[in-house]
Amino acid sequence: MRKLFAATAVLAVLTCAGVVAQQAKPWELQGTNAGQEVVGPDGGTMVWVPPGEFTMGSGDGEGRPNERPAHRVRITKGFWLSKCEVSLAQWKRYCQAAGIAVREDLARHEDDHPLWGADWDDCWAYSRFYGLSLPTEAQWEYAARGPEGRRYPWGNEWDASRCCNDDNVGPKAATFPVGSFPAGAAWCGALDMAGNLAAWCNDWYSATYYAVSPAEDPKGPDQGTERVQRGGYFWSKEDECRGAWRSSDDPKNRDGAGGLRTCFTP
After folding, report:
1. What's the whole-model pTM score?
2. Is 93:266 a contact under the CB 8 Å cutoff?
3. What tens digit of pLDDT does each residue of 85-123 get?
4. Which domains does the chain have, with CATH numbers?
């Protein structure tokens, strides 16, 4: 009887361990190095951004007023970030899974190009459906610039060939397919962090937030009228492709050019 009880107990422990192992998805675990890749719950690739510290914003005489003052920020927890912005094909799969009709104005674009024309609420709903979130503005800028505080995702020198911008537009004078510029990768392996379409962030926007931003894991103002967008657009000039450049839009605007990049913090 004792042997049977012991065997049953061991089996129970192993079964529980197996259940835990099954429940731990790749993106729910800590990564080991910058740029490590996993497949996220929406089928897209995610890259690991380890915790660290960087100078957020621009110094005196640099950038625009809403990028000042430059301030040190600590990202205390590593996170997974979409390697590329969500494509229209991914959005269509989400709509099918969620039982949502694909809006005709979204479907006019090519499947391998970034989702274009979704408002902030659309992007938030997508991320929550898969148990993800939108990156904070600080997470986005840290992923784009890294501990070195790069001016552009790939380095400090401008190179129009490394992203989709006003001097290097896509085949229809607009976007390129997502992930078209591997030479423009950020330090963490994220692509298209400059140009193509800017990404909606989780934060409310304030032009003066940097003056009161906390030093650890800032999450933006408690309220506002616009949400942050980061990363520049296909019509952007060099200045708007900088990692420190900030933009914003009405979260209800479905005629804008805000894209979607998801995030998960284990």
Report:
1. 0.91
2. no
3. 999 999 999 999 999 999 888 877 899 999 999 999 999
4. 2-264 (3.90.1580.10)
